[in-house]
């Protein structure tokens, strides 16, 4: 398993408590023997996210996400498997054994190292370039600030980076998005003559770059890294790791450019991030709502800014939450955050923040445009326009209150019926004995002591018999493990997804009832095995002579048939 001994993973999961891992990241509330919360992986207003200290397992009954502490770190923090183990081991004061030649996704670790070295190259070039330093200082950015953001410079050279990293395979540089190739096959530095802004992930690792043109007549103005194994621009936000590190603010400001983030940080507003040359995505909003109580989108006040804000609003609706807030700040014409704070200062910008427009106000104002609410026709049109956006909202108080406001504005009782979501859940009573046995052992591995490991599983001849045998044998070796430890040992098994889903099922059985179920299942298997043996011996008897031992076996089987 990724060259990390399974014994170490077992010990790690025994050492950490999944509640301690999740509670700093998600607000948990005690609910009987388990904990509940609003799911961090999808939008909801009624808690369906459950954490089980007994199983050391989490599960959301809304979106279906589930797993151990390792799985949670991978899903919530976006970590690779090994990164998750390393992080948990550090928390537990454990040292991860030598991982041999394993590298993240066999490529990832190499590419992180490539990006880190490239970043050092750009920073070194910046420090040696008076032109680059003068440029950014003329923009009012101090040395202390540009060092925080590790601003660099790519000299106007076709192969400066290639020469700096002569031992790095060019294929790795290409995969990292640092090189380009022309139609003639010539390979050259992708970033040339540009101010360089490293884009970092949540852990502060450089995963991409944004390059701003600083040479005369240079186009495009901004050049970003392409999509790579490390970088997906629809998921990343510039400055997020710095905002989390330098600010404890409960709100976050979303701006459009690198210099906007840096300029706001410079004047003490350190809770800003920027999208990366792309429109705001649903993933961006979900990521920010996990860490902040409020998002303030900051756009220019011109038509393009209002249009971008409207797109952000529409994307926000399906993931909006009653316990969160989204607002929109429109700056005066011809101003972006960078120019505004330089001309008017920090206090003026913060006052603009106070006056930012709420999502509901912006939505209703846009819907009312060119509509006469004093006429029946206008009110009908307004109701029709509202329906799409209201129905995009999750069921909750915000949606209910917005509906009331639509009713007030149109003087009509309005209710848009959400499309019901139906799920087909098979009753546990309808499960096969094999599936039921697997579910019981995954939910409570110690009950394997009531189940024989020497059962002739090969005689059962039913789907899942081999998997059940593997689980029984594993649990007999370690009967007092948790569900999480059991599942992590089957992570690379082809049935892992199926086994994980069974761990999320509420069996509604106490321990005594589960023991009785296993007893009945054991008897069923023994009866099935006996029937198969009898049938096989009778078939052989019809075709040829049985050996003396086989005759005795058949007599014993027929004499002692299980009823």
Task: Report on this structure.
This protein has five domains: 6-102, DNA Primase, Chain A; 103-231, DNA primase DNAg catalytic core, N-terminal domain (Alpha-Beta Complex), CATH 3.90.980; 234-365, Dna Topoisomerase Vi A Subunit, Chain: A, domain 2, CATH 3.40.1360.10; 370-410, Pheromone ER-1 (Up-down Bundle); 428-559, DNAb Helicase, Chain A, CATH 1.10.860.10. Helix content is 47%, strand content 12%. The chain has 24 helices and 16 strands. The protein has helices spanning 6-15, 18-22, 69-77, 81-92, 108-128, 130-138, 143-148, 160-164, 170-175, 240-246, 258-266, 282-291, 303-316, 337-344, 346-354, 359-368, 376-392, 397-410, 433-443, 465-477, 483-488, 496-503, 511-543, 548-559; strands at residues 29-31, 34-37, 49-52, 57-60, 66-67, 152-154, 179-181, 187-189, 194-200, 206-213, 222-224, 251-255, 272-274, 294-300, 325-331, 357-358. The strands form four sheets. It has a five-stranded antiparallel beta sheet. The protein starts with 5 loop residues before the first helix and ends with a helix.
In total, the number of strands is 16
This entry's quaternary arrangement is: single chain
For the record, what CATH class of the largest domain applies?
Alpha Beta
Pairing-aware structural class of the strands and helices? alpha+beta
Which percent range fits the helix content?
Answer: 40-55%
- Low-confidence segments, given as residue ranges, are 100-107, 419-426
Q: What is the number of helical segments per DSSP (H or I, 4+ residues)?
A: 24
CATH topology of the largest domain: Dna Topoisomerase Vi A Subunit, Chain: A, domain 2
| Approximate shape | globular
Please list the strands of the largest sheet in the order they lie side by side: 1-2-3-4-5
Note the gap between the termini.
44 Å
| Strand composition percent | 5-15%
The rounded Rg comes to: 31 Å
Count of discrete domains: 5
Major sheet description: 5 strands, antiparallel
Mean pLDDT: 87
What's the CATH architecture name of the largest domain? Answer: 3-Layer(aba) Sandwich
